[in-house]
Structure formats: structure tokens, C-alpha cells
Amino acid sequence: MIKRLSLVIAIITAILLTACDVPAPATFSPAGNIPAPAPSVRPSTPASAPQAKPSQAASPIQPGTVTAQVVRVIDGDTIEVNIGGKSYTVRYIGIDTPETVHPTKPVEYLGKEASDKNKELVSGKTARLDKDVSETDKYGRLLRYVYVGDLFINAELVRLGYAQVATYPPDVKYQDLFLKLQREAREAGRGLWGIAVTTAPTQTPTQIPKTVIPLTTPAPTPTDIVYITNTGAKYHRAGCRYLSKSSIPIERKEAISRGYTPCSVCRP
Predict the structure, then answer these.
(1) In angstroms, rounded to a whole number, what is the distance separating the alpha carbons of residues 69 and 66?
(2) What is the pLDDT of residues 241-258, one digit of tens each?
(3) CB 77 within 8 A of CB 158
(4) Splitting the chain (268 residues) into consecutive groups of 10 residues, what average pLDDT does each group show?
(5) 236 lies in the same domain as 147
(6) Which of the residues 45, 77, 107, 120 has the least number of beta carbons within 10 Å of its own beta carbon?
(7) Nearest to 148 by CA among 127, 130, 129
(8) Residue 240's domain spans which residues?
(9) 43: which DSSP letter?
């Protein structure tokens, strides 16, 4: 009896020891029967903040409006400015003043006065430069509307009669304003539209002091105004199809004196 009991205890002990040696079931990867390692648990780390890209040095010429320091007045409608430490030549949009520094043309009537007035308005001052559509002209000059404080310099030169309207599409934002101011200057006889001075001839051999007789030039009527282009040799009516690229208002007699002939299409 004791032997049988000892045998039973030995069998039970063996069974228990065998059960303890059975390995846990393995997990398998989807790609075969290779046991996959048990997943490891890693402590979570906070996501790193996105790195800011290094800022790039912006070009001193930005779209729209920029501030510049006027360093030199070249003539009545052209200045040199400093923007961000770099010099640029700026040509006023929409207007044209008499020539003073053209390499192949003589100094024109009121050219010096227009240049002096421009110096008075902008020389050494901080100006605001406003772009229209074009960035530069064919000479590489910035095309801009120029302001000093609240004063619109392009318009002021036209209003005072020192500049004529000269618009070239697509930069025509203020064309109507410039034409209105030019009419007012012409009607008021300012600047280029002012009094012509001539000397009357001596009537007798005796020494009679020469008399300066002011002759008032009548303001031209709207029909006296025609339009020329930057490259053509004809003058046109307003709205002529040949004015699509440039349209420069001018008095008919002035156009004729410069050698322009009437357009055969619009028959001005």
C-alpha cells in the first residue's frame, strides 16, 4: 500500500514538472512561420517642434509701394534714390518734362526750371515709390509714381505746367487725373502753357528802347489736341487704333511743326 502511494505521488510530481516546462505559444509574422518577437513598449516622447526655415534676405524692391531716400535729381522727371543701401534710377510715370541732359538734344524750353522745381520738391527727402504695372523701362530705370508726404510729385509737376502728360500702356492708372491737371494748367497759363515773350522790332532809325510785349497764347480748344506715339510719324484722334501702345497728347500745331502728318485712318 505504501509502495503504491509512493508511486502515485511520483507520477503526479512528474506530471507537474512536465507542465512547468511547456513553452508559451509563439506568435508568427504574416510573412512566414518565423516567430515574431514580442512587441516592446517604449516610453512616449513629445513630438519635436517643426524647425523654422531660415529667413531669406528680401530684395529691396518689393511689389507695390516702397520708401526710398532721394539722393540726386537728374532732371525734371528722373531721380536717383537709395533703397536698402542700393542706388536706383527712377523715371516718373505718365509725364514728360523738357529735356536738359539728353545726350543728343539741346536743353529745351523750361527744362532747367522743371529740373529746379523737381529739386525743390524732392531733393534730399524721403519719398514713397508706387508701382503701376511695369517694373522698369527699356533703359532699366524703375517706373514709379512718387510721393513726398501727401504730395503726389508726378501730378504736381503737371499741375504747375512743368510737365506734359505722356502715358504708355499698361501704366495708365492716373492718366485721367494727369489730363485733367494739364487742362487746368493750360487754361491758367502756367509753365509750358504760359506767356510767350517777344521783342518788338524798332520802328524808326532813332534809338528807341526795345519794348517787351507779352503775348498771351490762347488755350487750345479740345479739337486742337491730337495724339502722337512713341515711334510713329503720324498724329491721331483720341481713340485711334494706332494709339494702343502709346498715346502722347500734343497741340496740333506743335505736332505739325515737329514734322508729324495726320493719320489716314482716323483723319484728325
Answers:
(1) 10
(2) 888 778 888 888 888 877
(3) no
(4) 62 61 47 46 47 42 81 96 96 94 83 95 97 94 97 97 93 95 95 65 48 49 75 84 83 82 83
(5) no
(6) 45
(7) 127
(8) 220-268
(9) -
- Count of domains forming the chain: 2
CB 85 within 8 A of CB 106: no
> Is there a contact between 225 and 251 (Cβ–Cβ < 8 Å)?
yes
User: Which residue type is seen at 173?
Assistant: K
Closest CA to 193 of 184, 205, 206, 202: 184
Tell me, yes or no, whether 185 and 227 share the same domain.
Answer: no
State whether the Cα torsion 16-22-23-28 is positive or negative: negative
Report how far residue 32's alpha carbon sits from residue 224's, in angstroms, rounded to the nearest whole number: 97
Q: Which cell goes with 185?
A: 494748367
Cell matching residue 40: 516592446
The answer to whether the predicted template modeling score (pTM) of the entire model surpasses 0.70 is no
Cell 482716323 belongs to residue: 266
Q: Contact, 127 vs 70, CB < 8 A?
A: yes
- What are the residue ranges of helices labelled H in 91-250? 111-122, 153-159, 175-188
**Is 129 within a domain?**
yes
Shared domain check, 181 and 89: yes
Query: How large is the C-alpha radius of gyration of the chain?
Result: 43
